[in-house]
Amino acid sequence: MEERDWILLTKIGEGKNISQVSEELFITQPALTYRVNKIENEFGAKLFIRGNKGIKPNHQGEYVIRYAERMIKELQNAREEVLSMSSRIKGKIYIGASNAVAQYVLPDLLSKFLKKYPEVEPHVLTGFSPYLTDLLINEKIHVAFLREDLEWLHFKKFLTKETIYLVNKEEVEIENLPLLPRINYKTNQSLKSMIDVWWSKSFQKPPYITMEVDNGDVCLEIVRAGLGYAILTELGLSKEKHLWRKPMTNHLGEPLQRETWLYGSKESDKYYTVKAFMDFIDEEDMFQLFK
User: Fold this and answer.
1) Which fold has domain 3-81?
2) What backbone phi and psi angles, to 5 degrees, belong to 151?
């Protein structure tokens, strides 16, 4: 078996169908089907169940997929060790990040990192914390920028705090919020809970939510149109210069803030590319990058 076969098997193991795998690996479906049949012939057994809903591994197939995952990891480790002998920082690094971090922080950060280490190949996956945490646990990514403080047994580094703002097209009084239309957006449960607790301690009435949108950028556009207020983090407002905003505080007068941490997978410190990235983070002013 070749490396491309191991990768193919892991993609099927992720629950993807032949069409999705062929698109990701840039090979035709007939060629992919040929590779799958050849792998089965090599093991002398049927490894997959084929049906109208696609292809799924059977018991033997699941075992072979786990083997492929181990082989990919072993090959990556071997490459890292060989490169380390020549003092070169080269290879892939898989980074997880929230949409906001990927949009506002990573472009500048990775641009600077690649100027220093041009032979590193970064791969970025975005999503909410539960998804990224699962990727870390299963070592599908090396590091993740998560905007909350989680219990974690491996590498963990505090990066910065962001202020949470009340945002509207025009100035509003806090006590009038229950009567005003609010624009909500999908976000991590930790931020939603923080806002919900703040609201319950500030008002007797529930918020007057008129719109629910997918992300903070869409929410911001609706606020710009004067259709309601929103509660947004500082990072999402980094390029906003015209809307009225007010830092939010709790009932003790303390600012509401959201933390961002860098987490590493169980074996992240074994990879020289990942270690170089973590060292680079230590050298950067992350506080300014999040402004």
Assistant:
1) Arc Repressor Mutant, subunit A (1.10.10)
2) -70, 130
With a cut of 70, list the residues of the chain below it in pLDDT. Answer: 83-87, 286-291
How many CB atoms within 10 Å of residue 226? Answer: 12
| Whether the Cβ atoms of residue 58 and residue 45 lie closer than 8 Å to each other | no
Distances from the Cα of 69 to the Cαs of 17, 27, 75, 182, in angstroms?
18, 21, 10, 46
DSSP code of residue 59: H
Cβ–Cβ < 8 Å for 112, 83: no
Q: Write the Ramachandran bin of 58: left for phi over 0, alpha for psi from -120 to 50, otherwise beta.
A: beta
pLDDT at 86: 58
Domain ranges of the chain: 3-81, 91-160+259-289, 162-258
Q: What is residue 26's DSSP assignment? A: T
Q: What residue type is assigned to position 237 of the chain?
A: L
From the list 102, 74, 106, 98, the residue with the least C-alpha distance to 277 is: 106
Reported pTM = 0.73
